Amino acid sequence: MILSMIESFTNLFKKPLTHDYPKIPLPKIEHYRGLIKYTLAECIFCDKCEKVCPTKAIIFTQNLDGTKVYHYNHHLCIYCGECVRDCPKMDLALTQSDEKPGIELGVNDISETWKALQERAKQDRIDYKK
Fold first, then answer.
1. Cβ atoms of residues 117 and 57 within 8 Å
2. Rounded to whole angstroms, how far apart are CA atoms 73 and 4?
3. Which of the residues in the chain have pLDDT under 70?
4. Residue 96 pairs with which residues in a beta bridge?
5. What is the pLDDT, as a whole number, of residue 53?
6. What is the DSSP letter of 87?
7. What CA–CA distance (Å, rounded) separates 123 from 130?
8. Which one of 4, 30, 40, 50 is most buried, by most CB atoms within 10 A?
9. pTM for this prediction
10. Sign (positive/negative) of CA torsion 63, 124, 110, 31?
C-alpha cells in the first residue's frame, strides 16, 4: 500500500502519457480507409455496393417508375471499403474520404427507421418485378 501511495505521488509530477487531443490532432494510422462518400450524379445504380456490404449498411429502395434511392447507415458501416473496391465507377460514385458522414438518421430512431427502410427495399423489389 505504501508503494502505491509513493507511485501515485510521483505521478503528480510526471508528464502525462496521453495526447493533448483537442489541441494536437491525432496522426492517421497507416492503413486508414476513411469514411464512405457517395456521389449521386456518378452512380449507375448497379447495386454491387449493396450486395458486397458485409453489414448491410447500404440499401437501395426502388420506386415503381424504376428510379432508385441510395440509403447509407454510417452507424452500421465498418469502413472495410468493399463497396468502394467493387464499384464499377470507383473513386467517382463511391469514395473514402476524411469528411464526417452525413447523418440521415438520428441516434434514437436509427434501428426502427433502418428496419423500415430494409423492409421497404424488399417490398419495392417485389412490387417492381410485377
1. no
2. 47
3. 99-111, 130
4. 36
5. 92
6. -
7. 11
8. 50
9. 0.67
10. negative
C-alpha cell recorded at residue 64: 415503381
Query: What Cα–Cα distance (Å) separates residue 120 from each residue in 32, 102, 125?
Result: 34, 21, 9
How far, in whole angstroms, is CA 14 from its chain's centroid?
A: 39
C-alpha cell of 41?
450524379
Q: Can you say whether the dihedral through the CA atoms of 84, 88, 90, 95 is positive or negative?
A: negative
CA distance 75 to 107: 9
48, 91 contact by CB (below 8 A): no
d(CA 91, CA 86): 11
Contact 76, 106 (CB under 8 A): no
Nearest CA among 32, 34, 22, 49 for reference residue 100: 34
**What does the block give as the cell for 97?**
474520404
Cell representation of residue 14: 510526471
**At residue 53, what is the residue type?**
C
